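Structure ticket #2291
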Amino acid sequence: MKRLNIVLPDDLEQDFKEEVFKRMGMKKGNMSKAIEEAIMLWISKKS
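Resolution: structure written out below.
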């Protein structure tokens, strides 16, 4: 497993965090799961 460091605009990061918490709750690891899901979705739509 790899670790990525990314830089996002503050408003995008806040919107994403709020959506993750709404959909998945505040459990540890949910942000990583949501980011993984978003990347996989982005890749599948590019193909």
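Closing remark: The mean pLDDT is 94.
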